[in-house]
Design brief:
The chain contains 10 helices and 21 strands. It is α+β, with helices and mostly antiparallel strands and about 450 residues long.
Length: about 450
């Protein structure tokens, strides 16, 4: 989400946005069997999606097929779909249904929706053995909510982040069916492949995750086909965007899209920062693997901020720019190196903020000491989103963004700058398109030094 430095948006403004978000109780997951200790499953997902838009992109409907492999030694008897687009509205009401609806399921038997209508369990017709593949198909109906949001409307523009149903993850802890708590992210998905065909009015410009080709459709319509490999999610937007494409010296194609009211100087600032940071992070952490990246800009996202998706970022852009560098850093931290964002929000937000500060060369020599006391006795970097949702929301920004980034700078001073850089490249390479945990990172750091880091972890509450 939004960066806390590198542009003028104040920390207090972001904290206020998070504090004013509606309270959401932590719901219970649906019952059902968990898998035996094993690798995360179902893995190697492949999504094939075909949707048709109405006249202004407010409504999309069609069919989606998801194929997957069982990576667990225990037979897989069901899979769970996450309908994250329902996170804010839940199950809706008779006259106002959930924004994302699924029907006509084939390849399995659906159970009732759970976790505030964000989780749909589908029982498979027969247990899926280890290493075998299966698929499920279903109709998808998406009504874009009437609010400025990562899944919402902005005047004539539509943003469809978290709109597509995605496979949930199961591992030795069982099914990961955590709720959307109303702020931050709760997402946990495995990298997969997407082929998304969007049939839309010709007047709509449609940026999307992946590499997109376009052809003429029915009279007055365009068919956009986007293909993405090794991504955890798929997002798109639609509207009368102005666009421009540049290529970085490192060969990454940047597609900029902006609304009619986005300030031109903000567009130029964002493009310059994007060109520099994509290549910089590629040198630091590993070359950006997706070929192209879409920057979707608007000056009307102030009640929301900015948001990262694989291959596409939404940016609240003012004359002085946006949090574009922080959001691009997320392409590596949660995108390339995945994490359970509900269980370990610091593994993406703290790392993205650390990378943002590295890029801008911000002074951080005393940042840990400058933070003073922890906000509470229970505050710690490894806390989950459940902790922050349960009466600790005011700690989220201060701990996850600020203290987390400072802890990484402090670790760099402990290891040495060269050793830290080498360690991070190795960490990224080791978990490339996988899922990392706090324990994985601690192991990577300890492997980079002969010094016992136990006291460091205790001091920094990791």
């Amino acid at each position: 989400m939004t960066s806390l430095s590198g542009w003028r948006a104040p920390l207090l403004a972001l904290a206020a946005l998070l504090l004013l978000a509606p309270q959401t109780a932590v719901a219970q997951a649906p019952d059902g069997p968990s898998v035996a200790p094993s690798a995360a499953t179902p893995d190697r997902p492949s999504y094939d999606v075909r949707l048709r838009a109405d006249g202004d992109g407010s409504h999309w409907s069609g069919r989606q097929t998801v194929s997957f492999r069982n990576a667990a030694r225990a037979p897989l008897t069901s899979v769970d779909l996450r309908l994250w687009g329902n996170g804010t509205d839940g199950c809706g009401a008779p006259d106002s249904p959930s924004p994302v609806r699924v029907g006509r399921v084939s390849g399995g038997t659906p159970r009732p929706l759970a976790v505030d209508c964000t989780a749909l369990r589908i029982e498979l017709p027969e247990p899926l053995p280890y290493g075998a593949r299966a698929s499920v198909s279903f109709d998808v109906d998406i009504a874009v909510p009437d609010r400025v949001h990562r899944f919402g409307k902005d005047g004539a523009y539509r943003y469809l982040g978290n709109a597509l149903p995605l496979l949930s993850v199961r591992d030795e802890q069982g099914p990961h069916l955590d709720p959307d708590v109303g702020f931050g992210e709760s997402f946990h998905t495995l990298a997969g492949d997407f082929r998304v065909v969007l049939d839309h009015p010709r007047a709509l410009v449609v940026p999307a995750t992946g590499t997109t080709t376009r052809r003429a459709g029915a009279p007055g319509r365009t068919v956009s086909t986007s293909v993405a490999h090794g991504v955890r999610d798929f997002a798109w937007a639609a509207g009368p965007f102005t666009s421009r494409t540049v290529t970085t010296p490192g060969g990454v194609r940047l597609n900029a899209y902006w609304t009619a009211t986005t300030p031109p100087e903000g567009v130029e600032t964002d493009l310059k920062a994007a060109v520099g940071s994509v290549d910089d992070f590629g040198r630091r952490f590993g070359h950006y693997p997706y070929g192209e990246l879409d920057l979707v800009m608007s000056d009307n996202l102030d009640d929301f901020g900015s948001m990262e998706f694989p291959g596409l970022v939404l940016l609240w852009t003012e004359p002085e720019g946006s949090a574009v560098v922080h959001e691009i850093a997320h392409q590596w931290f949660y995108g390339i190196v995945g994490n359970d964002q509900f269980a370990s929000p610091w593994l993406d937000e703290s790392f993205a903020q650390y990378a943002n500060q590295l890029y801008y060369g911000e002074p951080t020599a005393t940042c840990w000491e400058d933070q003073g006391e922890w906000p509470s006795d229970t505050a710690a970097l490894h806390r989950t989103m459940a902790y922050y949702a349960d009466g600790h929301r005011s700690e989220y920004v201060r701990v996850v963004y600020i203290r987390g980034a400072c802890a990484l700078h402090d670790l760099e001073r402990t290891l040495g700058s060269r050793e830290m850089a080498t360690m991070l490249r190795t960490y990224v390479r080791t978990h490339w398109l996988g899922v990392a945990t706090t324990a994985d990172f601690k192991h990577a750091a300890q492997s980079a030094t002969d010094r016992d880091l136990g006291p460091f972890w205790r001091e920094h509450r990791i």
